[in-house]
Structures are given as structure tokens and as C-alpha cells.
Amino acid sequence: MTTRFSKNNEFWESQRSLLGTSSSLPPTPAQLYKKRTSSLLTTTLTLILPTSSLLYLLLPSPSASLSFLLGGLLGLLYLRGLTSYVSNIGSSAITPSGDLDLSDAGGGSARFAFLAMMFIVDRAVPGKFTLLAIIPAFFMYQVASVIEGQREWEE
Question: What sections of the protein cross the membrane (predicted)?
């Protein structure tokens, strides 16, 4: 004779066994995007820091390495803003009625401000920064993007 208590106990035992054998769910697109974004930001940072350190060791003046570091960090901030903007495109560009709302289209000009900021810093502190080192460092995120694209291709 089985009692209600033993049936309840059997139920929970079967649930525990199911829990132990279940496979994990595949990641959602948002989780994949977050993983790729953090990987891209990390790769960019790992390109900027050793390169600026190497410039500091090889060149007699530290201004080029500091300029490279400044440009790289501005590029990293630009990339962070860009990834935040892209992650919000799907949710904010389409209204509940299904229409396309481009009222937030000014995000591009805010991101462009990082590029303008490089020139402002160069002019505000004359002789301290080298514009020829700032500009390539700013675009190091593009190199990191190619590296991450290659990693995705290999997966």
C-alpha cells in the first residue's frame, strides 16, 4: 500500500533525477552578444596595453606611448558606446505598433565626439601628445574586430 507521502516522495526523487540528467539550454542571442562584446573589448585592451608599453620601452620620448595609450583608451570607450548602442537597436528602433522609430538616430554623432576629442586634446596640450600615435591607436578596435571575427569563423 502506497501512501500519499510515499507518492510525493517518489515524485521529488524523479524530479531530482531529471535535474541531474538534463542538458543545459543553448545560450540566447543576448547572451551570445554579451559574450562576444566582452571578448571584443578584452581583445582590444590586450592589444592596446602591450603596444603602448612596447612603445614606451623602445622610444626615447614617452609622449608617443602616452599618445598611443590615450588614443587606445578613447577607441575602447568608443567601442563600448558602439556595442551599447547596437545592443539597443532591436528594442528601441521598433515601436509597439511595429513602426520604425529613428528618433535616437543622434547616437552616431555622440560616438563621433570621441574622434573629435582626440583633436581637442592634441590642441589643448600642445607638445604632449603625438597625433600620429593617437589616431592609429584609436582604430585598434578594428584590429581586435578582425581577430574576433577570425575566432568566430574557426568555431
Answer: 40-59, 65-82, 129-147
The dihedral of CA 13, 18, 24, 29: what is its sign?
negative
Q: What is the largest CA-CA distance in the chain?
A: 92
Query: Which letter, b or e, does each residue of 107-129 get, where b requires 16 or more Cβ atoms within 10 Å of its Cβ?
Result: beeebeebeebbeebbeeeeeeb
pTM metric for this prediction = 0.68
Residue type, 13: E
**Type of residue found at 110:** A
**pLDDT tens track for 41-62:** 999 999 999 999 999 999 988 8
The pLDDT of residue 11 is 79
- Residues 6 or more apart in contact with residue 27 via CB below 8 angstroms: 35
Q: Can you tell me whether residue 100 is helix, strand or coil?
A: strand
Please report, for the chain, the start and end positions of each structural domain, with discontinuous segments joined by +: 27-154
SS3 category, 40: helix
